[in-house]
Structure formats: C-alpha cells, structure tokens
Specification:
- The protein has helices at 2-23, 30-34, 37-44, 48-92.
- It is mainly alpha-helical.
- It has one domain.
- Helix 1 runs antiparallel to helix 4 (48-92).
- The longest helix has 45 residues, at 48-92.
Length: 123
C-alpha cells in the first residue's frame, strides 16, 4: 500500500515538475511566453512569477528525488526478504547433497572382464 501511495505522489510530482519547467521563461522566451507568461509576470509582480516558479521547481524536484529513493529502497527490500527466506530454507534441508547412496542388493552382478565366446559355427 505504501508503494502505491509513493507511486501516485511520484507521478504527480513528475507531471507538475514538467509543467513548471516548461512554464519558466528561458533566454528565448520558451513556452512560458506562449502560454501567457507575460500576463503571469504582471499578476505576480515583476519578479514574483520567477520566484514562485523557481520555488515550485525546487520543491517538485525534491519530492521527485525523495520518492525515487524511497521506491528504490522498497523495491530492494523485497529482494532482501527473499534472500533471508532462501537462507532459512537452505538451513532446514539436510546437507548430505553429493554423497553416494548405498546400492540395493537386487542389482545385476558385474559382467566378467572376459568377452563371451563366439557361437560355434554350423558345418
């Protein structure tokens, strides 16, 4: 359940981060000017929009990094649990692997070292 919540937060942070980065005005104007970036600067004041977008970018980037690290840790914790279970199962099993089993008494006797005689030919 924690992984699901972190996934949702991670995807939301990704979407907001992409939107905020695209809204910022670069040297050439960027997409911020295409979506009315000039009007936003008037609403927030001369430098207000830049500060808000910069802060939003930093916050979203921080959330993105924290959720990435958290999801990676949770993903690897399943591997650790699996390894611990494998070690526990290996401790339960007998350690006589690779030893020879005793042979049954009903096995065929060994063939002799001399080859069988050829059958007599008919006259």
């Amino acid at each position: 359940m924690l992984t699901t919540i972190l996934d949702i937060i991670h995807i939301g942070a990704c979407a907001v981060l992409m939107f905020v980065v695209l809204l910022q005005q670069g040297k050439g104007g960027g997409l911020g000017a295409a979506f009315g970036g000039g009007a936003a600067a008037q609403v927030f004041g001369g430098r207000g929009a830049g500060n808000i977008l910069t802060r939003a970018t930093a916050i979203c980037a921080g959330i993105f990094m924290l959720t990435s690290v958290s999801l990676a840790y949770l993903s690897s914790s399943g591997d650790r649990a699996l390894k611990a279970k494998a070690v526990q199962e290996a401790a339960k099993k007998p350690t006589d692997k690779g030893t020879a089993r005793p042979k049954d008494a009903k096995t065929d006797p060994k063939p002799s070292d001399t080859p069988p005689a050829p059958p007599a030919s008919a006259p």
